[in-house]
């Protein structure tokens, strides 16, 4: 092994795993949310996209469940079944 290496002559090789590490997505975001992430990004010197990425990574790695204030599909099925049972009981009476 050499004591020093000259990396200036090294040929760049793209990371073959990059596509597997991340994926580009496009979505709409309301102005208030965008302004919030922009404000946070400005405080740290990060682009708004980077702040959102870091926030989503932290949220996903926490391992908890996300409560967005809407019933899940399973909960909606249970609600629909309950309503159907109530309607059936009312029509029998």
Provide keyphrases for this structure.
single chain, 93 residues, mainly alpha, 4 helices, 0% strand
Can you put this structure into words, describing what you see?
There is one protein chain. The chain is 56% helix and 0% strand. The chain has four helices and no strands. The chain has helices spanning 18-21, 31-44, 48-61, 73-92. It starts with 17 loop residues before the first helix and ends with a helix. The mean pLDDT is 89.
The gross shape turns out to be elongated
SSE pattern, N- to C-terminal: HHHH
* Cα-to-Cα separation, first versus last residue: 90 Å
Helix content: 55-70%
Number of strands: 0
Can you tell me the residue ranges where pLDDT is under 50 for at least 5 consecutive residues?
Answer: none
Instruction: Name the average pLDDT.
Output: 89
Structural class based on helices, strands and sheet pairing: mainly alpha
Quaternary organization: single chain
* Main sheet makeup: none
β-strand amount: under 5%
Rg, Cα atoms, Å = 25 Å
Q: Helix count, per DSSP? A: 4
